[in-house]
Design a protein that fits this description.
By secondary structure, the chain is an all-alpha fold.
């Protein structure tokens, strides 16, 4: 993603960022259909990872990370898991299309902060909704997934614009590592429901709100040239 941003001008950076993020969304939509027909988890893993062989052969690698906290809780609402997964994926389309327009209208920072805070609000609301109202809780969770998706689509572009060219590759590599670390921790967070049923929701809500508050301290990169050196960052600050 960072290389793609360096190849295009300021006007088209947001388009490249959103299109890159949409590739994950379409894959997520297809995943629900594959899981419906391939019910054994072992064969499901084979089915969804086998296309990587083609990618390795053709040297086309597609890197995507996500916000697995909400996604992994797909069975926590008592509804059809295939329909829920499909809806979880589908909500990303309007979310990421909205990001395309918001990045220029209100800026990268405001979009990221707003999306994270709204995701936290949705998680907080679901803590208060009774568990027997599974449909309402699912709707709120889907809306939260949309905001979470918008925050991810934004941060892919935003973080690449924040790093100067001299450390952009290393910085994006660190971001990717932290994303993978979040993926590894997400299933463990869901196990906290054995301590208290709502503890996973509280943890994820707190993380989203904290992320939004931290993002508020970052500089805005809208309509700015990519910084080349650390000195450029210091001058902007």
């Amino acid at each position: 993603m960072d290389g793609c941003v360096e190849w295009v001008d300021i006007e088209h950076r947001k388009l490249v960022g959103v299109i890159d993020s949409l590739s994950w969304t379409f894959g997520n939509i297809v995943f629900s259909a594959i899981a419906y027909f391939v019910t054994d988890w072992r064969w499901l893993i084979v089915s969804v990872t086998s296309p990587l062989i083609v990618a390795i052969i053709t040297w086309r690698f597609c890197v995507a990370t996500a916000f697995y906290g909400i996604s992994f809780n797909i069975t926590g609402f008592g509804l059809n898991i295939y329909l829920t997964q499909f809806t979880y994926a589908l909500i990303e389309l309007p979310a990421k299309v909205s990001v395309y327009y918001l990045l220029d209208k209100i800026g990268r920072r405001s979009t990221e902060v707003g999306a994270l805070l709204m995701a936290g609000v949705c998680l907080g609301i679901n803590i208060l909704i009774p568990r027997d109202m599974s449909t309402v809780r699912t709707v709120v969770a889907i809306i939260g997934k949309g905001f979470s998706s918008a925050s991810f689509a934004t941060i892919v572009l935003y973080s690449s614009e924040l790093y100067p060219t001299v450390i952009r590759q290393n910085g994006m590599g660190y971001n990717s590592f932290m994303g993978r670390f979040g993926v590894a921790v997400a299933p463990l967070i869901l196990l906290l429901d054995e301590v208290w049923k709502d503890l996973p929701q509280v943890f994820m809500c707190s993380a989203a709100v904290l992320g939004g508050l931290v993002a508020r301290t970052l500089s805005e990169t809208r309509n700015r040239c990519l910084p080349e050196t650390i000195e450029d960052i210091e001058q902007q600050s």
